[in-house]
Design brief:
The complex is a heterodimer of chains A (about 140) and B (about 140). By secondary structure, chain A is of the alpha+beta class. Chain A contains four helices and three strands. Chain A has a three-stranded antiparallel sheet with strand order 1-2-3. The longest helix of chain A has 22 residues. Chain A starts with a helix and ends with a helix. Chain B has about 140 residues and is mainly β. Chain B is built from one helix and nine strands. In chain B, the strands form three sheets. Chain B has a four-stranded antiparallel sheet, with no helix packed on it. Chain B has a three-stranded antiparallel sheet with strand order 3-4-9, with no helix packed on it. Chain B has a two-stranded antiparallel sheet with strand order 5-8. In chain B, a hairpin with a 2-residue loop joins strand 3 and strand 4. The chains are: A alpha+beta (about 140), B mainly beta (about 140). Chains A and B meet through helix 1, helix 2, strand 1, strand 2 and helix 4 of A and strand 3 and strand 4 of B.
Chain lengths: ~140, ~140
């Protein structure tokens, strides 16, 4: 399986090509649209690789990567990712989140879901990211 | 969590090939004044200035149906200020690829806010439960 970055690079190119013809004839934009959807699916499968099937529909869960920023000083920010594993089937409300992809998958496989906490978790992670940044700058 | 308010025209636009939500670029617009359900396009809104604000394009993670229920799943979007950003309260989602930037829905933050240099504002979309569902 390709890496996330490889897929994202190709996805960005496909979106750029789609955007140029999106308002034209369907015969022009439909191939790019199909390519985008296929790449989105591939990216989702890459993120959720190793996750067990959804307990409701039996399908492969989807994977998302949320980009979060913690402001640091003037005009600076620390970027970190939160990975989310879940299933969009109509009966599913469960999702597992972690800044580490493998941990998010492991939590999903253990039926360890944290949707009620993810905002507080995101805040905690922002604080930790700021502390790490401060440590790096202060050399401690 | 803020609820999504739908623009009435969106459902008709969906039925008449205006939106390709799997591929089109959905984007955030910020306003101080409240949108109304009868607004149809971005031009109906008075947006704040985005001079000191980071990119507002949203990432679509998944656009698919399961057992006849469609869900559009969007990744969270973090806006970062590189200077002062004007007061806003309402967050509108629109289709930037569509011909006239057709509107989809909006959120009410509940109170007005401003952003100073370096601050962030996170639009925390409901992850795998979906931005919206169509059944």
């Amino acid at each position: 399986m390709r890496t996330q970055e490889e897929i994202r690079t190709e996805l960005a190119s496909a979106k750029e090509a789609y955007d140029k013809v999106a308002l034209g004839a369907e015969s022009e934009w439909r191939p790019y649209s199909n390519q985008i959807k296929a790449l989105q699916k591939e990216l989702s499968d890459c993120i959720s690789e190793g996750a067990k099937p959804c307990p409701h529909c039996g399908g492969q869960p989807i994977g998302l990567r949320h980009v979060h920023l913690a402001p640091f000083g003037a005009n600076q920010s620390v970027e970190f990712f939160i990975y989310e594993i879940g299933c969009p089937c109509k009966d599913s409300l469960e999702m597992s989140m972690s800044p580490d992809r493998e941990t998010a998958v492991a939590m999903w496989n253990r039926d360890e879901w944290n949707p009620p906490l993810h905002r507080e978790e995101a805040h905690r992670l922002r604080q930790e990211a700021l502390k790490e940044k401060a440590k790096a700058i202060l050399g401690k | 969590m803020a609820s999504l308010n739908k623009f009435n025209s969106f459902v008709e636009a969906m039925a008449e090939k205006t939106h390709n939500l799997g591929s089109d670029v959905l984007t955030v617009a910020l306003t101080a004044a409240a949108p109304v359900a009868t607004n149809t396009v971005l031009g109906n809104l008075t947006e704040i200035a985005y001079t000191n604000l980071s990119a507002r394009a949203i990432t679509t993670s998944s656009s698919a149906q399961t057992s006849g229920t469609y869900k559009l799943v969007l990744a969270d979007l973090v806006l970062t200020a590189s200077g002062a950003v004007a007061t806003f309260r309402y967050v509108t989602i629109y289709n930037d690829t569509a011909a006239t930037d057709e509107l989809i829905g909006w959120y009410d933050y509940g109170s007005s806010l401003t952003m100073a240099n370096g601050e962030t504002f996170t639009i925390d979309f409901d992850g795998t439960n979906g931005f919206f569902q169509l059944a």
